[in-house]
Specification:
5-stranded parallel beta sheet; single chain; 14% strand
Length: 341
């Protein structure tokens, strides 16, 4: 029986490599994570240099016969042309817009993602942000630094009885709904396909055409959408102006879904009360962005899904899919290239 060449574009550690080999003895496993990282780094910092060309040549040699690739969040350049034997790519992340732009789908390569792996950590980030907002924690953190003790001048509020609006109630949105309901919130959500059952913990489910009503009635709005041509820039001035002046918007989807210039105006002019943002149009967030200095904005550097054992969680999905692949069975989390997720 033919052996399967598997390239690990992310270093998973010696113990996990041994576990994968024991689980699937038919595979020839090669760790190319360091080569991928070096090529990407040199293409950014020193393109065309002898070092970059050497790094590219070494990576070419390492992946030319790979049939399966466990990919980081960013693929190396021109993967389809460099990996003629490639049939399947497992992404480390849920968002795959960069991978889909690589031409893999056009080359007939199956792409699977890590949908669901970070759902709970991201949902916890959302509720953490909502609690920080409701209890004025950013203000109190600043007062602690200033050694300023003052009581009863700020209005705290309870999440109970408030409404959480979730734009895109997939795996992540479902976890956000569950935790929001535990705090006694009313949960509104949109989903592209509303024919199936309403997700648990969702009180009202809207199709995308109902986004306006969700925005108008929610106290918190969470952007939990994939980045596609349909969703890019879909939250702009009209949508932000339709929200309550007391409402907050949170983005844990992708930065370009929100028109950042419109968001800055909304925050400065009081169309909405504030924002909690984990993703941005440009990452890293530019130093001259006005968002840095805004007291009504919580910022984190694209870490809402980070958790100590994240790689182990993804490798568990990869392991399950590897068994399915070797058995000729349907894979989990196959990405639909036309939909973009």
């Amino acid at each position: 029986m033919d052996r399967i060449k598997v390239a690990l574009g992310v270093s998973v550690g010696e113990e996990m490599e041994r576990e994968l080999r024991a689980y699937a003895p038919r595979i020839d496993l090669k760790d190319v994570g360091h080569l991928v990282g070096r090529e990407i780094r040199l293409l950014r910092s020193d393109p065309g240099s002898p070092e970059q060309k050497q790094a590219t040549a070494e990576l070419d040699a390492a992946v030319q016969d790979a049939e399966v690739l466990l990919s980081s969040f960013r693929l190396p350049e021109n993967v389809p042309g460099r990996t003629p034997m490639l049939k399947w790519v497992q992404s480390m992340g849920a968002g795959v817009e960069r991978i889909l732009r690589s031409g893999l789908s056009e080359a007939g390569v199956i792409v699977t993602n890590a949908r669901g792996v970070a759902s709970r950590p991201i949902a916890e980030w959302v509720l953490c942000s909502a609690l920080m907002i409701s209890k004025n924690m950013p203000v109190y953190f600043q007062r602690k630094r200033d050694r300023h003790y003052q009581r009863m001048d700020l209005r705290n509020f309870s999440l109970e009885g408030m409404s959480m609006g979730i734009l895109g109630v997939g795996a992540i949105g479902g976890e956000i709904a569950k935790l929001s309901k535990a705090f006694g919130m009313t949960v509104l959500a949109t989903r592209k396909n509303t024919d199936g059952p309403v997700p648990p913990s969702v009180d009202r489910l809207f199709p995308p055409s109902g986004t306006g009503e969700l925005l108008e009635t929610s106290d918190f709005v969470v952007v939990s959408l994939p980045l596609t041509p349909e969703t890019a820039g879909s939250i702009s001035e009209p949508q932000l102006r339709s929200m309550k002046p007391s409402a907050y918007i949170m983005n844990i989807g992708r930065g370009p879904i929100i028109d950042e210039a419109a968001l800055v105006r909304a925050l400065k002019e009081g169309w909405i009360a504030g924002a909690a943002l984990d993703v941005f149009e440009k990452e890293p967030l530019p130093q001259d962005s006005e968002l840095w200095a805004m007291d009504n904005v919580i910022l984190t550097p694209h870490i809402s899904g980070e958790v100590e054992d994240y790689n182990d969680r993804v490798v568990a999905v990869f392991k399950e899919n590897l068994g399915r692949y070797l058995a000729g069975e349907a894979l989990l989390n196959v990405v639909d290239a036309e939909r973009g997720y």
